């Protein structure tokens, strides 16, 4: 059976997005502000990428880097270096693949990064420790 909703039901949902996603997590936990440069390996058509690249940047005033290419490890490192990314949003599989790239410290300047997050699947302890 189909239901119809009055318009006022959607106002609290928007409020919940701004409060729980932006204020409580992006700003409260990650400390994102207008000085940050965000980069999400997940594209904006995924919920993870939508929040990271679009909602967080709009809600905090931060800049967002959008990568049209497939996020291969070398491409991700190059993007972080080129744009001075401060907050990187990845997934465990990508982090594991990035750890396989040889001589990362010699090839790329990642000193702009202040925080990296992971979601989408469980992050293995060994990947966390090595990262």
Brief account:
The chain is of the alpha/beta class and 131 residues long.
Describe the structure.
- By secondary structure, the chain is an alpha/beta fold.
- It has a single domain (33-130), classed as Rossmann fold.
- Helix content is 47%, strand content 11%.
- It contains 6 helices and 4 strands; from the N terminus they run αβαβαβααβα.
- The chain has helices at residues 10-27, 47-60, 73-83, 92-99, 104-107, 125-130, and strands at 37-40, 63-65, 87-90, 115-118.
- Strands 2-1-3-4 form a 4-stranded parallel β-sheet, with helices on both faces.
- Strand 1 (37-40), helix 2 (47-60) and strand 2 (63-65) form a beta-alpha-beta unit.
- The radius of gyration is 17 Å and the shape is globular.
- The mean pLDDT is 89.
What attributes characterize this protein structure?
131 residues, alpha/beta, Rossmann fold, four-stranded parallel sheet
Q: Write down how many β-strands occur, each being a DSSP E stretch of 2 or more residues.
A: 4
**What percent of residues are in strands?**
5-15%
Going by helix content, strand content and strand pairing, the class is: alpha/beta
> Whole-number radius of gyration?
17 Å
Total of DSSP H or I helical runs spanning 4+ residues: 6
CATH topology: Rossmann fold
The CATH architecture can be named as 3-Layer(aba) Sandwich
How many strands, what sense, and barrel or not for the largest sheet? Answer: 4 strands, parallel
Low-confidence stretches: none
Separation of the first and last Cα atoms: 50 Å
Mean pLDDT: 89
Tell me the number of structural domains: 1
What is the helix fraction of residues, given as a range? Answer: 40-55%
Return the CATH class.
Alpha Beta
Strands of the widest sheet, in order across it, are 2-1-3-4
How would the global form be characterised?
globular
Spell the H/E element sequence: HEHEHEHHEH
